[in-house]
Structure formats: C-alpha cells, structure tokens
Design goal:
Largest sheet: none
Radius of gyration: 16 Å
Low-confidence stretches: 11-25
Mean pLDDT: 83
Order of helices and strands: HHHHHHHH
Strand content: under 5%
Distance between the termini: 33 Å
Helix content: over 70%
Number of strands: 0
Length: about 200
C-alpha cells in the first residue's frame, strides 16, 4: 500500500521534470485553436496549478468561486498579453510548482481558506500560467487564436473543478479532495527538491 502511495506522486513528478521546450509545439497538426485549448492539459505543471487552485477556491465557498474564477481568468489574460509583448521566454515550471504546492497544501489540510486568500492566490496562479502558455508567434492571428483558446480551456477547467469542489458534501468526497491535494503537494515538493539538488 505504501508503494502505491509513492508511485502516484513519483509519476506526477516525472511529468513536471524540465524537458526540451516542446510546450507549444507538442500538439502540432491539430491547429492553433485546439493546440491552445488543450495546452493546459498537456503541460503538467499548468495542470497541477489549475487543479490545486480550482479545488482550493471550490472548497473555500461560493464567494471564493465568484471572485476567484474571475481573478484567475483576468490574470491568465494578462499573462498572455505580457508574454506576447516581450516577457522573456523562461521556464516557469518552478513558479507553477510552488503555487500548486501552496494551494494544494491548503486543500490537503481540510481547512476552508478565507475567500480573499483563495481568490488572491488565483491571481499569481493565472498570471504565471498565462506567461508560461504564451504561444510562439503570439502576435500573429494564429497565435492570438491559440492564446484565446488557452484562456478558454484554462478557465473552463478551473470552473468545472471549482464547481465540483463546491458541491462536496459527503465525508468520502472531502477525503478524496484532501487526497488529491496531498498528491499534488507531494508532487510539487518532489519537483522543488529535485530543482534544489540539481542546482548544487
């Protein structure tokens, strides 16, 4: 049983280990719109931060959902704009992992965060995600279309997760949310530890 608990975080860790920069070219052939729409699903660090933030704002109540989703959407849009007008193309996986760690640890604790904390955390999560997901050639029509699709996909995903988390009522559902939070926490901690060891 212990080995099973370790296998899932380790598998998630493999997904966020830095690799060659194929983030915006991994879905070649599907078109700009679908490449952008599916980008948050194929970039593991972005997926982690979306799931962790969605669970956090959903578990924090209706007010957190109202303000958190709006804040997240605005921040993703801002990140995409900043990324397209000259922000240096750097690896933001560490920032995404750190934000996922903070949000997931709060979910794993089982405590409801105040709405302003949950909604406030959605801002840096969305901003970094937008910067990370800025498509190459974002000033072209195809790049704009891809960016808009990324915004749509990320906001749709976090809205679904927040709505599911908001409707959690039964004990086993709360436990499942906490387990998901603990897996994300473990994955993010393993990744950050890997980064620290790798810098020595």
């Amino acid at each position: 049983m212990k080995s099973c608990r370790l296998i899932l975080p380790a598998a998630a860790l493999l997904g966020v280990i830095p690799q060659a920069a194929h983030a915006h070219g991994a879905l070649e052939g599907v078109g700009d719109f679908y490449a952008g729409l599916l980008h948050p699903l194929v970039a593991p660090a972005e997926m982690l931060v979306i799931v962790a933030t969605g669970l956090l704002i959903g578990r924090s109540g209706l007010a957190a959902c109202r303000y958190g989703i709006l804040a997240f959407a605005s921040a993703v849009a801002a990140g995409l704009v900043f990324g397209s007008i000259g922000a240096a193309s750097t690896d933001r996986t560490t920032s995404l992992a750190l934000l996922a760690l903070v949000a997931a640890a709060m979910v794993a604790s089982g405590l409801r965060a105040p709405a302003w904390i949950a909604a406030g955390l959605a801002v840096p999560a969305g901003l970094v995600l937008g910067l990370d997901a800025t498509p190459e050639g974002s000033m072209r029509l195809g790049g704009v279309l891809s960016g808009l699709a990324t915004l749509l996909g990320a906001v749709a995903l976090i809205t679904i997760l927040a709505a599911l988390a908001l409707r959690i009522e039964r004990h086993w559902q709360r436990i499942a949310a906490q387990v998901a939070g603990s897996w994300i926490t473990a994955s993010a901690m393993l990744y950050l530890a890997y980064q620290i060891v790798g810098l020595r």
